[in-house]
Sequence to fold (298 residues):
Amino acid sequence: MSTPANDLTPVTVIGLGAMGRALAEAFIEAGHPTTVWNRSAEKAAPLIAKGARHAATVEEAVAAGPLVIACLTTYDATREVLEPAAAALAGRALVTLNTGTPEGARQLAAWAEAREVRFLGGAVKNVPPAVGKPGTLLYYGGDKAVFDTYEATLRVLGGDTVHLGDEPDLAALYEQAVGGLLLPALLGFFQGAALVTARGLKAGTLVRYTIKWLEMIASELPAIADEIDTGDYTRPRATVGIFHQAVAGELELGREAGIDVSWHLPMHALLERAVADGHRDHSIAALVETLRSPERRF
Fold:
């Protein structure tokens, strides 16, 4: 596990899907000796052409350097792929950049600890073309010593690189917490696109106005988060009742425009429950109380 003459940490990337290829390309472009492995070996060809070394086996890939980046689909898939190389992994740093639940991250961290592997669970909060850019966010949870040792190397993948804490499931926790926003936001845009294109207008005409709307929402998040953290919903900017009153209009719009708005129904049910729980005149942030299960904390 010696460091090369150029003092840049050798890196191994396991898994060469779209994100894995982007990670490997970023390391190659930054000058890090980069070894790659994938079950489908042909995926390595473009990276080999750029200067990567292709390992014939996962054991060989793991043995190539002190830092192993696994970018596979799930924690279970990561464990399955790396199990044959467990002996070679001992003493090395394993960084995972895959999706999954906090429980999955904890299980993989326990698997790594039992094999004397130093574990850091991470998440890339952007699309593959953004890897390597100064504003791209990646966050990590787990062994702080691993993060400190390899922070400069990990920062190659994105300039906004954060260690969340020592608990190995923190990146998965925040990945799920933040990622829950994506599909509802996209569905909202898709509904708008269906609406304007039904009138013969271009979906592209929505982009400017949607961005401004998202910026407004972003500007409100600190105040909303403060309401949730303090539990004080009594000084609302917008009430649960206002959103609840809009339900009939949303359903009417669907009928008028011939658009399927049934994806709103669970949200309508949530509003109904919040009103029934006495939150009609409270801030919309009070919906978090309706979402919570009082019997469970993890």
